[in-house]
Amino acid sequence: MNILFTICGRAGSKGVRNKNIRNFRGIPLVKYTIAAAYLFKDKHSEYNVDICVNSDSDELLNMSSKYSDIVAIMRPNQLAQDDSPKVPVIAYSVKYMEKMKEKTYDYVIDLDITSPLRKLEDIENALAKAMANDDADVVFSVVHARRNPYFNMVEDKDGKMQKIIKSNFVTRQQAPKVYDMNASIYCYKRDSLMNIFKNSPFDGNFDIIIMKDTGVLDIDSEEDFDLMQILAEYFFRTDYIELYNYACRYKS
Q1: DSSP string, 156-202
Q2: Least packed by Cβ within 10 Å: which of 68, 201, 211, 218?
Q3: Partners of residue 27 on adjacent β-strands
């Protein structure tokens, strides 16, 4: 079975300057995601696994191309705008890699750079769910939501504050379970990605895997970056020690 890992990151950042290559606990942030892909590849020799990094950043691509088995893909300008969706970038990477490798992939696993805390078993679970669920075009990672629109979330509608979803629930336990997408793992069936998805993972049928809640933080601001480093100091000593050890192997 052929599997492609895509790691996509744009140059610069409005919230955190050059966050994808910025040191995070002493290691460039992108290398935790590279380490996660390598961890899966090394543990699963039964699969044919390729890894690519797609970016419009020369620095990020140069950093990635130091690894002989990572393909660095320069992102075309039309896919590198502030409002460019990620799905077309992943699809572009698939076309590029399939032409280069002269193969067709079965699954495409996208790992987000700004959500560095993930375990090998999280990736394994996403792939297993995608393989087991014939109806799912994509399986993505979520965590249990800390807020619930049926119970304790409000919004401004025409200048008036009200509950997002009208309900009579008086405790969160009574309300339907909801989840936060944590933007860490997306496992696409290759044919679905190339033929169904246009701009969003919601374009097709989807399923989920539940990951450990590490603060539900994407790194989108300086405060996020600092806080996630504090959280990571603890988690890299406990639940994510294998990932951290792998990242240390690829830090130079």
Answers
A1: EETTEEEESS----SSGGGSPP-EEEEEEEEEEEHHHHHHT-SS-GG
A2: 68
A3: 24
What pTM does this model have?
A: 0.94
Report the residue count for the chain.
252
Quick check: is 157 in a domain?
no
Tens place of pLDDT per residue across the chain (252 aa): 999 999 999 886 665 778 888 999 999 999 999 999 999 999 999 999 999 999 999 999 999 988 889 999 999 999 988 888 999 999 999 999 999 999 999 999 999 998 889 999 999 999 999 999 999 999 999 999 888 999 889 999 899 999 899 988 888 888 899 999 998 999 999 999 999 999 999 999 999 999 998 755 667 788 888 888 998 899 999 999 999 999 998 766
**What's the structural domain count of the chain?**
1
**Which distant-in-sequence residues (6+ apart) come within 8 Å of 240 by Cβ?**
117, 118, 119, 232
Domain hosting 109: range is 2-144+180-249
- Pair of tokens at residue 84: 């460019």
